[in-house]
Amino acid sequence: MTCSAPGASAEADRLWLEHARTAAVIDDEDCFLVRGADRGWVRVRRTAHTALSAALVPGAGSVVIAMSPDGRRLCALTEEDDDYWIVVHRFEDCAVTRGMPA
Questions:
Q1: Which of 16, 44, 67, 74 sits CB 3.0–4.6 Å from 33 for a disulfide?
Q2: pLDDT tens digits for 25-74?
């Protein structure tokens, strides 16, 4: 979807949430992990005001990666060439150590 279209960021957030829930990235407590710019993975709780698109820098090809608390699934939202992209991935054969892939 085109980033500059009216309501595009809200639609990107809605679709990200739909994909993240379907992929079980968000746990029963509405929590997931995000990667901080200057730190490792941080556990956060989704609220009605959560908007991953707000963390994207327009025109910079930035990405926000959310990972399930067990480290086995991710759902990312990225902006590139004036489009939003949602990427979902499952790590099938990955050893898990303290909630993160080894």
A1: 67
A2: 999 999 999 876 667 888 889 888 888 787 777 767 778 889 999 999 99
Question: What pLDDT score does 67 carry?
Answer: 93
Q: Which amino acid is residue 21, in one-letter code?
A: R
Distance CA 102, CA 97 (A): 6
CB–CB of 69/60 below 8 Å? no
What is d(CA 55, CA 17) in angstroms, rounded to the nearest whole number?
Answer: 15
pTM of the model: 0.79
**What are the start-end ranges of the H helices in the chain?**
8-22
Residue carrying the six token digits 């990107």: 12
Residues in the chain: 102
Closest CA to 33 of 87, 62, 71: 71
